[in-house]
Amino acid sequence: MKGAVVDGMWWLTQGDTRIGELRQYAIDQPTFLCHFIPGPGWEGVRVLFESWAALHGPDPDGSRTTPAIKPIMDLGLTLVPEDEGQPMALFKECIVRIDGDIARVRC
Given Cys at both, which of 8, 18, 30, 93 links 88, Cβ 3.0 to 4.6 Å? Predict the structure, then answer.
């Protein structure tokens, strides 16, 4: 898996700004479960991730999900492994969903 970190850490970034730190604590295939620690850029994007986290239940046509994730997609966020390996673009190479202090990463 490209950029995968086992029992490691990633930084969620927007350019040079760190949005937060994700520290893996378990795997629920195909998802890495992580503790999320907000960084200096978190407050600028927090409400977008909270809106997405608030969605529950089926959404077969995407009519509820698309408006929630489109603003996040437009941020150009990347996930950078702790070993500073190849950054992964969100929604192209991986998905990060943050709900409170828990993040789920799927690559």
Answer: 93
Bridge-based pairing of strands 78-81 and 88-89 is antiparallel
Distance linking the first and last C-alpha atoms of the chain: 7
Summarize pLDDT for 9-36 with one digit per residue, the tens.
999 999 999 999 999 999 999 999 999 9
Q: Which amino acid is at 82?
A: E
Q: Please, are residues 43 and 27 in contact by the beta-carbon 8 Å criterion?
A: no
| Closest-CA residue to 93 (of 83, 75, 76, 106) | 106
In angstroms, the CA 32 to CA 9 distance is 11
Q: How far apart are CA 100 and CA 104, in angstroms?
A: 11
